[in-house]
Design brief:
Residues 488-609 form the Response regulatory domain. In the N-terminal section; belongs to the phytochrome family. The modification 4-aspartylphosphate is found at residue 540. The two termini are 84 Å apart. The radius of gyration is 49 Å and the shape is elongated. The protein is built from 17 helices and 18 strands. 50% of the residues lie in helices and 19% in strands. It folds into five domains: 1-45; 78-107; 109-298, PAS domain (Beta-Lactamase, 2-Layer Sandwich), CATH 3.30.450.20; 303-459, Histidine kinase-like ATPase, C-terminal domain (Heat Shock Protein 90), CATH 3.30.565.10; 480-609, Response regulator (Rossmann fold, 3-Layer(aba) Sandwich). The protein is of the alpha/beta class.
Amino acid sequence: MRQRLDSRTIFVAVAAVVIALAAVIAAAGLHYYATIHELVVQADAIMPTDKAEGTAIVTVTARLVAVLVGSVLLAVAAIAALLVYRNRRERRGERYVQSIYQAIGANIDTAIFIVDIKDRVVEAVFENIQDILGVPAAAFFAVDGLSANEAYAKVAAIVHSGVPGERRTWEFQCFNGALGRNMWLRITSRPVVLGGSEKIIYSLTDVTHEHDIRQKLMDTVAAAEEANRAKSNFLSAMSHDIRTPMNAILGFSALIDRDADDPETVREYNRKIATSGQHLLGLINDVLDMSKIESGKTTLAASEFRLSETVAAVEAMMRPQTSARDQVFTVEVTGVTYEALVGDEGRLRQILMNVLSNAMKYTPEGGSIRFAIDGSLKRHGALQHLRIVVADDGIGMAPEYLATIFDSFSREESSLTNKIQGTGLGMAITKNLVDLMGGTIAVESALGRGSTFTIDLDFPPAVGDAADVDVPAPEAPVDIDEALGGRHFLVAEDNDLNAEVIAAVLGIHHGTCDVAENGREAVEMFSAAPAGTYAMIFMDVQMPVMNGHEAARAIRALDRPDGRTIPIIAMTANAFAEDKREALAAGMDAHVSKPIDVAVLAKTVAALSRPESSGA
């Protein structure tokens, strides 16, 4: 702490000592004067030649002089000793107080100024002002009105103003040239009385961090409010999008009852119900996918896959939809060195389908869609780089919507897009999956000119693979009657309606089944049946008493050979990648998600029925 030196107390003490010494000298002088006067009077009465009396007078006079000289010397020595003692004491006190202030200043984030109100003079400044402003404490004892340091100039102007009265607070933003940054400062004044004199204590604090936190909180609140508005808009849109297929399903179901005697009409109603159901399932899957992504539970499953097969599968799914809209759909794969790659093929396929489906929906009939993969642009080390481009000549997007296209629950609202159903989650899911895979996605678009999505991903090649890519033809569909017909299945299903549906589906395709209401009953029924009774087991997962995973483990642990070999298919609404891994870890052979796609079920049954697929 820097402090002005006040020596008035020292002067008062010295004056007191001098007065005391003067009093002593005066008393001694009066005493010796009286003595000399008496001797002189006596000398007048005797003979002036009396040597004894003269000697006495001289002696008394010498003593008087000695007393006077000694008193003066004593006074001088006393004053000198007092000054030395006082100076040392003041220095010790000042050093002690200074150490206290330094300790306080070193351990707090506030600098203190003490200002005399009457003289408007800064009497003391904490040294930690250097840490706060980058300006030494000594700079505040005199005003530098020409300082280019905005922070110092504002603080100095306040502390030298000598503002009396009640407590007051200033808070302002300024640029600190000494520190080279903007900062927020808060100064508080408090009038006090110290030693009988009116003072003002100013406290200075750097509140930049508080303002940064406050701003971040405000930004967070604004973002949360914006997210809530987006979710509210999403729920409103979802309400419409869900009710639309539900209205079709319920409406056509009622029409089926009315036109039950017209098989052709019933089949047409049923086809429309199936289409609406598939759309409703897509909406549900998007919501569940986004929920898992936002909760951080989405993981990637790395396995070997062939790029050509992925491209063929995506083309097989998209071609019927684009053909139905008379759209020109072209597929190009060039420059790919490694045919077999390692990664999450399911998520890659989801990314491609999301972008391609988006292009198909927003491209009018007769338009064109280009799907291209180029593997020759760049590589990171030994990784296979894929640049995926999906370009269309559809309706395009407005510039302001491009900034939010990858936000959750975001959809562009216009007369052209409002008739197109969707959750507004497809692009958000795609962006999150691309990020999760360490890639990038970008989009260019203009209203009326179409859109181009560019995705860059890297995959490690499978060991020992380097070949050009030839896109194979899609696999031939499985004959459902052949796959399911003539077989007897054990179905573990606790929901009566679902059990009725699977039994009816198997019956239509000439298959039969026994139904167990929970996992324990399924284990007991299998244990009690002779070997070869059941061709396969369809196992639900979420069941009372014993769930599907526990039941599968129990069957695999039975002391009979077919318990270890009978195919068990998880037939469940748990449709995520980790659900499939858990089913396989429990001893099941395959996973088919609900709602059941009969073609997928038949393909799975056919695959497990092949000789090479059987085993422990």
